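Researcher: Next entry: GCN5-related N-acetyltransferase (Ktedonobacter racemifer DSM 44963).
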Amino acid sequence: MSGIDAYKCILPGGREVLIRSGICADADRVFALVRASVLEEQVHDLNTLEDLPTREHERKWVEMLEQAPEKVLLLAESQGEVVGFVSFNNGHLKRLSHQGEISISVKQEWRDQGLGRQLFLALFAWAEKHPRIEKLSLQVVATNMRAIHLYQALGFVEEGRLRRQVKIAEGQYIDLVFMGKWLNRDVNYH
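Model: Predicted structure:
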């Protein structure tokens, strides 16, 4: 199992959360958070209700992240409720296993309180303990400036942009931004 030791964290506004590794038993609560996020974020989320995985697929995804040595699902809990998560998946190809994709979701009423930052810091600490992992990558729609500012503050840089990649309505498109962060400070980014 790849994960972290659970710990409590006080957010800047004084709210307390428990940050811990996700397990198979959490799959339904993670699914509920993703579903709520899609319902709330009609523009910033790449998923639509039609795109959501089934509960069974979500359970298999959580199980895969729990059991693989260099993949992880980290949860933020408050009073037993999952209020956020971050995951890292480095795929299965050897030549790409030094890097992987991050996914993050924070419940709407917990946003702008430092929870996303705390989830990323927990992920960075986990990744530093895995020598194979050198780079973290993510995708974000160009209109989600709040997320982009957080990612930049955490050391992510824009690596590319696919113009008009995300179709939000007939005739309405948004760019998809690719961002990355190298963990090893000795690596020249360019």
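Model: Note for the record: The helical segments are 27-40, 55-67, 115-128, 145-153.
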